[in-house]
Amino acid sequence: MKNKAVIVAISEFTTLVQSKAFIVGLLMMPLFSGVALGVQKFTKDATDINDRRFAVVDRTGVLFAPLKAAAEEWNAAVRAQSPQSMPLYLPTEVKVEDRDDQALAALSDKVRRGEFFAFVEIPANAMDPAGGEPLRYYSNHPAYRPLPGWISATVNREIVNRRFRDAAVDRALVSRLTRRVEMSELGLLQRDTAGAIHAAPAIDKVRTIAIPVGMMMILLFSVMSGAPQLLNSVIEEKMSRISEVLIGSVTPFELMMGKLAGCVGVSLLLAVVYIIGGIIVARHFGYGDVVRGSDIAWLFLFLLMASFMFGSVFITIGAACSDLKDAQGMMPPAMLLLMLPWLTWFAVLNAPDSPMAMGLSFFPTATPFLMLLRIMLPPGPPAWQVAVSVVIMIVATFAMVYAAGKVFRTGLLMQGKAATFGEMWRWVRAN
Amino acid sequence: MPPAIRLTDVSKRFNGVAAVDALTLDVPQGSIYGFIGPNGSGKTTTLRMIMRILLPDQGRIEVLGSADTSAARDRISYLPEERGLYKKMTVRRLLRYYGQLKGRTVAELDPVIDDWMARLGMDGWGDKKIEALSKGMSQKVQFVGAVISKPDLLILDEPFSGLDPVNAEALKDAVLEIRRRGTTVVFSTHDMTTAERMCDRIFMIFRGKKVLDGTLEDIQAQYGFDTIRLRTADGAAALSEMAGVQAVNDYGQLQEVRVAGDPQAFLKALASRTAVHQFEITRPSLHDIFVRIARPGGNGGPS
């Protein structure tokens, strides 16, 4: 005869994987990635290519001509594109006396009316090496960056050239003498068993950063797709009094463990699907060897713990509330715990050996995610830190399951107002 | 033979209020036992304690001969008053699930499910989702869920409430069939006629205390022949301001009256006022007894 918790787990698992939420969860990560890539591609290809007509107030009297020449060169290159992906730059020189605010206001009106996209004021002392006034770019489209960037770069290049020429210095020579020496980033040389030395491999950003981050995301999405569904499941059973029928057949602890196991099964299934999909994609791009078996083993260990831990949290909230509205009020603290690794993973990525990274990876609800990331980032944390994090996680998981069991036992049959955190704490402490 | 259920001095309080107060009760095996009582009197709390859904604050509960009622869990089935069904599940999957939780295998359950579904007129509904069922159909599914494990003790909380006469009749027949197979049936009800007709013994709880317990005859005997059931040409109007009338229960075409003094003298006085078509000295109905006990200012039990 099957253990009753197993029967509950199978039913919970089957119900969850047949739900719309699971399908959404299954598609969430590839969808997120696909949408992000798609948006990037779309925004890259869908640049605004309307002509950028702009006025130039050149008080130096010498910079407009090279600016116009550079614009024509730019426009010729743009016209050669098929399809066109950049706007044409169409400068018009406008003569304005110094401190003639009326004229500048008139130019502003022309920008407002759309006759010009912007206008730029080049001060008379712009070429002064001792420090002239800045170029002034006026526009009612402050978010549009390409045009001011191009004007600034073009005018500055011309100014620097003129300064070199005025100082009788060969610009080409200076460029050669001041050319930067590039640096390639490498791993370490390897010595094989025969003593032969193998060249250090080049650092591959995909291997060293994208894969660890991807694995952590798989863990995060798998947990987020499974654990929160327990909240709905418990509340549905409370609201429709299914829990009374179930408690007539199984103990509250068997029921809770069955539900938790079903939820963990869902998260594991999601992770398996994501990993298989990830490996297929990695192979397609020539990174088939990049995910090690030990990394996958770590992922599943951390996933198991995280699912039990967060599943317990959501079961506790469900048991303490009588409807979804009450539950929404209790969700923010739980979501904050779940979001903690999401909010901090980038800092850990940049400095995986820092005290902050170590401290965060010892915080129970962040441990599974951040320690997995640290393990996968070369050279990885010291073994003692990994061991401590595993112990912390196991202890925290057992403590949370124990506390959830206490709250679940009492809260499951309660109706009416939601329990307070104080009441839940009393239930946990009660025998 | 030990009783199917034995409650000894059982009490349960919620927020200081006694929901069940020093209740002692034996439910014989193989009987149909009716729990009656007004809303909030402690019926459901008692049933939940028998099911070990709630634990008593004091007292002892033995079910099927064991004080550890969880040990007998697979031999007891419970149908709660508010029906608990998963809306998205199909009927068959739900019934299998409930049956498996009672320790049965799918192979054992499937023929029993088919049998009960045919018996209750639900042929071909196995693949329907619960959310597609009517209220009456859902209630029947819930009932089947409670009986497919072939329990020794079946506890039904308001099994007939909300059912139309056809479905209520089908469920009544099913309950009697289960009792014939040897299952002890305990059910709570507000329908006194059902309790009178179906129950071997009736237990009434009022404000957490037992006020009635026994066969219908035992209970009625406690009240004696103090009720006159009559039908007259003028109905209840004929009883207006008649001397000796203590209480009138008017059913429109028929009145039940309690009178002080000699019933024959009352009949004589009544005949002088109106044409009497029916005059029957009888025991009070269960409904009448219930109302006498539970109405505001009621006496709380037989004198």
Describe this structure in words.
The complex is a heterodimer of chains A (431) and B (303). Chain A contains 15 helices and 6 strands. With 431 residues, chain A is mostly helical. In chain A, helix 2 runs antiparallel to helix 7, helix 10 packs antiparallel against helix 13 and helix 12 packs across helix 13. In chain A, 65% of the residues lie in helices and 6% in strands. In chain A, strand 1, helix 3 and strand 2 form a beta-alpha-beta unit. Chain A has a 4-stranded mixed beta sheet, with helices on both faces. Chain B has 303 residues and is α/β, with parallel strands linked by helices. In chain B, 32% of the residues lie in helices and 27% in strands. In chain B, the strands form 3 sheets. Chain B has a 6-stranded mixed beta sheet with strand order 5-6-7-3-8-9, with helices on both faces. Chain B has a 4-stranded antiparallel beta sheet with strand order 11-12-10-13, with helices on one face. Chain B has a 3-stranded antiparallel beta sheet with strand order 2-1-4, covered by helices on one side. The two termini of chain B are 32 Å apart.
Question: Quick gist of this model?
Answer:
The complex is a heterodimer of chains A (431) and B (303). Chain A has 431 residues and is mostly helical. Chain A has helices at residues 4-17, 20-45, 64-79, 101-113, 146-166, 171-177, 205-239, 242-247, 252-284, 293-320, 324-350, 355-361, 367-376, 383-411, 421-429; strands at 52-58, 89-93, 118-122, 136-139, 190-191, 197-198.
